[in-house]
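Case study: F-box only protein 9.
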Amino acid sequence: MSTSAAAPTSSPNVGPEDNQTAELLARFREEWKQEVRQRKEQVENTENAPPPQASSSKAPETDDSARPQPTSPEPKRAYIRPGQPSATHSAAYTSQSASHLTSAQIRAIEVYRNAVRHEQQSNLDEALRLYRNAFRLDSNVDKLFHREQQRLQALANGATPSSATRPTHKKATSSTGNAAAADAKDIAAAVEALAITEPGVNAAALDGIHASGALAELVSTFPAELLFEPEDEREGVPIGLLPNELLLHILRTLDHTTIERFASVNRKARVLALDPSIWREFVQAIYKPPQISDSETLLQRVAHFRADYRRVYMEQPRVRMDGVYIAVCHYVRRGLSEQPWVNIDHLITYHRYLRFFPDGTVLSLLANEEMQPATVIPMLKPALRMKGFCIGEWTLDGTTVFISNLVEMKDRAPLANTTNTTPSYHHHHHQPPPQEPSKYQFQMELELRSRPLGRWNRLDLVAYDTVQVATGEVLALPLKHDRPFWFSRVRSWPAW
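Here is what the predicted structure looks like once written out:
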């Protein structure tokens, strides 16, 4: 152009090297403008091309093959968040999508789009209903929706700059004084149209989380950018400065209750708490014999839940060991009265305790109302010796807990205290006599349940038998006054 040619001669002290550099710059600028114009014409031709018809399907294919294609790769199209409005009307969307989507998929995407719109309007009930309908029509509707939004946004980004740059060409031809500014705007608009925007990180794929069921549907509606928002806008969020890797390392040191409380803070916390590395450690530490049968492996259980370790931990039956199962039982006993017209009844209360250990040992204690749970629980250890205290073995099969070989320990000597270093001068003179084996053993069958709040916090007593060791005879005991066992957590006891 004339303006670029006049630039080198504007200064009287310009040398031959400066003139050569200016010519190279001008030539490079002209080549760049020509390349931008070619790319812009390709975008305009793509937008103005009529949609293929059924009667003449071969002709457009020939034209498309002859026409040069855009150089930007297909997978790197601009990303549209679920909350952003559609770039085109639904009718145009349907016509453009009919070539590669079925009618059922188009219908599912439209329902999903309406659900997003209702969610933006805070109409959550209607949005939830539409989300369910959309996933019933197509289980992958969320992926189809995001893919179509990316395609439509790419088309919209290609059409907008071309229409916006047409008046610039008219201004450039009408006014030579503004030619440089018009060309600069033209180049900037074309470069912006050809710029490739990397898609944002989807919440469902953040750090490789794995969720399923209703929780996966909820996470799929989260926006791409997840942040910790301050409760007071005037204050910062210090936790937002920590990287996700450090937050996950902190979460792995907490128990499941604290993790779920943290997950209820906001969306990013919910997504971080779904990281499989957190729940994998819980599952691997808990689900081993006797929690699962010897014939079944942990991998089989995990595969049953589609590798969702959180669901394994929540839904796979397990006997809890971070507390004690307590059954509060009552019965009425008739009393004696000196007056014949006065009837006296006594309400008798007693407690049954069950404490399970990871090695398959179980402690059972029957105590009367004189010993309250606050007094008994700290004493409930294998070294305890008192009336009604038994030690046995337990196994879990599905939701059924089998307790066998329950032997009463009231007459047996306490276990040796290895921590006591005080010498005993009368050790050889006062040894207890050898104990005879117990003549009777007890066994229980219980059903593990989750109700009303908490997981696996109830044990229903199905059968309670006494076994004569010598003959193996089994005698069922009545369960008239027995009640279910309810779990009570003890913070100082480990979970595995």
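For the exam, be able to explain this: The mean pLDDT is 74.
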